[in-house]
Amino acid sequence: MTDYDVLTIGNAIVDIIAQADDAFLATHDVQKGGMTLIDTARAHQLYDAMGPAVETSGGSAANTVAGVVSLGGTGAYIGKVSSDALGTIFTHDIRAQKVRFETAPLAGNPPTARSMILVTPDGERSMSTFLGACVELGPDDIDEALVAAAKVTYFEGYLWDPPRAKDAIRKAARIARENGRKVAMTLSDSFCVHRYRDEFLELMRSGTVDIVFANESEALALYETDDFDLALAKLGEDASLVAVTRSEKGCVIVEGSAHTTVPAVPLARLLDTTGAGDLFAAGFLRGYTAGLAHADSAALGAIAAGHIIEQIGPRPQQALKLLPAAASILAGIPA
Q1: How far apart, in whole angstroms, are the C-alpha atoms of residue 191 and residue 7?
Q2: Which sign does the torsion angle of CA 240, 284, 115, 11 carry?
Q3: Which residues contact 172 (CB under 8 A, 6 or more apart)?
Q4: 313 vs 107, which has greater pLDDT?
Q5: From the CA atom positions of the chain, what is the Rg in Å?
Q6: Per the omega criterion (within 30 degrees of 0), is the bond before 52 cis?
């Protein structure tokens, strides 16, 4: 099997994105800035109440691998859809972006997952997610040869919500380590961290995970503190390599007691923060798997994240490798 730079494993979701104001969030009891799991009835209720929407394939880990490939890397994806209209859309979209996706779809119910994403005027996104077919992702969906062929296997913390997915991730991590490969995860969001704090810390402290991605609020939630420096210190103790994003403050790369700050990219406009963290991870992993210095990898992540929040939707609408700032960094990849 051909080697891949990054294999990502995640919830295969079609995003339904609409503009809304804070009053709409309050009226419909939507938690601002986070991801809330919902059932079928709630999904129909929100969909009917939303304004005009854009439907686009999403899912955190799927967005990340799409970004890796857009930056000139190679990638594969494992995630569960159903044999329905949204599943067909998701499959088409990710394959069209030159990502290998071969996970067998469900023949019937539950249907493909969808996330109602409400974007407020400040660019913040609030997600109400029906997991649908995602809950059926399990160990049998993990392709051992595919994991062995990937330099990094990356998974999203959201996978701790579907019950069988935990076993799938642990299987993938074991295969990766047996083949001398690396494992990475994103903490996904602070609400997810609150739900699974002890398990996430165990993944880090046991060495199951080599690379951790988090934003500032997730890092603080992980250690139940409002002291950012303390959170960084603890991350340095618990994980080998950590990238913590801080929006307009850039990001901090943590390796033990060493901290490297990389600035954010100035924005022409901020339309939609959906996918910003996913694309930062994409840029960082593209640089990491190509042998770039961590600071250069983080800068590539900042460029990808900055670009994605200037558009609606979490998937690149143009080749990121052609952005002048990205091309300059990619030119430094060792031959």
Answers
A1: 25
A2: negative
A3: 9, 78, 142, 147, 153, 155, 183
A4: 107
A5: 18
A6: no
